[in-house]
Amino acid sequence: MHDIHIIGGGLAGSEAAWQLANKGFRVRLSEMRGSGTMTPAHQTDGLAELVCSNSFRSDDAQNNAVGLLHQEMRDLGSLIMAEGDRHKVPAGSALAVDRDGFSAGVTAALAAHPNIEIVRERVDALPEAGPTIVATGPLTAPGLAESIGTATGKDQLAFFDAIAPIVHRESIDMETAWFQSRWNKVGPGGTGKDYINCPMTKEQYLAFHAALLAGEKTEFREWENVPYFEGCMPVEVMAERGVDTLRFGPMKGVGLDDPRTGRWPYAVVQLRQDNASGTLWNMVGFQTKLKYAEQVALFRTIPGLEKAEFARLGGLHRNTFIKSPELLDGELRLKNAPHIRFAGQITGCEGYVESSAIGLLAGRFAAAELAGEALAPPPREMALGALLSHITGEAEAETYQPMNVNFGLFPPIPGKTKKADRKQMYTGRAREAMQGWMAQSSLSPAS
């Protein structure tokens, strides 16, 4: 017996289940991993497994849109943020987590909740009746994806999503590499030395760039014309845009002082801590579709990684999302089947935090509806409201693409303002808007 069915135990589904269960509703949470079915990208059957990076990005709620989103979610009792905070690892001003500890924490919290039943099963069709939240993410099983396509009457949109390699810390040569955050910036719990930096000279960089272009890649001919998402682009695709693209992107040496020369390197490869014990480090910005043997050979040409041992090599998987601005109403309901809500990356938001945030809102909207109440959508001045508005109608449906939260989604600050002050004006206005929304909607962190 359940009051609502949630399909998908990723970040969005887990957050939605938590919000509903804490409001007293019985949740059936279906997750296909653990039932004998896996995805091309997941490695475990843990709920809320982080597939790509282990970073929730900036945790600066004063100057950054995603940091503001972090804080809004914390204020609403987010399970994802609570476990992220509990399992954080040093990452400068960003919030990065021990991915295994984080997933285990989310799984344990949901399994222990008396209002949640976790069922390991693959769901191949949308339910014809009954309150439902679909949070199956970018790797929706083919049967369910076909059912969604039939229900929406629209062709699915898709792009390729790539995964970065992870290196064993003990295999990194620290005689060449060094610890430093860019500009020695210190975040909460950090030291200013939260990244491992592997420097390159101009000659080394040019040789690496040429080898990256020449390396054999995994190709999916059936999907050759599918676009990449700009925020998770394979490193070799970036390299194809020009010889200096990487050097002004993920391999930028600015703000990093090589202790051997006292100068900024021509280019640099950064690694970020991936687990709490510091034994695993991921290669920042090095999502790739290079074949495995090519990855090992090429990445071992990077100074400091000559003897690198890889806990995971990079990969490529297909990502699917719907035309949410056209198909969903302002409460994330499917317009032609309003008993069904969508949440997470399948709605076209991008990023761990954004996915979780839409799961939180879907759970809150569903809880209000089950209680016979109305929950006003968060105002657009909030990070939650800006993201929701973009997904459910602000974006242009025909050109809709996955989007991270950013200040460009917020209503503009009126009048002339200094660029240096504008970010804090956005976040200050958002906090005021959230206070009003929570008071109007009788919301509180504990509710």
Question: What is the compact description of this entry?
Answer:
The longest helix is centred in the last third of the chain and has 22 residues, at 419-440. This protein has helices at 11-22, 65-75, 79-86, 99-112, 142-152, 202-214, 235-239, 292-299, 324-327, 352-370, 383-394, 419-440, and strands at residues 4-7, 27-31, 55-58, 88-89, 94-97, 116-120, 132-134, 157-163, 166-168, 178-179, 195-200, 267-273, 280-283, 310-312, 315-321, 333-334, 337-342. The chain has 447 residues and is of the alpha+beta class.
Keywords:
six-stranded mixed beta sheet, 447 residues, 31% helix, globular, alpha+beta, flavoprotein, tRNA (uracil(54)-C5)-methyltransferase activity, 5,10-methylenetetrahydrofolate-dependent, six-stranded antiparallel beta sheet, 17 strands, flavin adenine dinucleotide binding, FAD
Structure explained in plain terms:
Belongs to the MnmG family. TrmFO subfamily. It is an enzyme of class 2 (transferase). This protein is an alpha+beta fold and about 450 residues long. The protein has 2 domains: about 5-160 and about 320-440, FAD/NAD(P)-binding domain (3-Layer(bba) Sandwich), CATH 3.50.50.60; about 165-315, Elongation Factor Tu (Ef-tu), domain 3 (Beta Barrel), CATH 2.40.30. The chain is about 30% helix and about 15% strand. α1 (about 10-20) runs parallel beside α10 (about 350-370) and α3 packs across α4. The radius of gyration is 22 Å and the shape is globular. The two termini are about 25 Å apart. The model is unreliable at about 220-225 (pLDDT under 50).
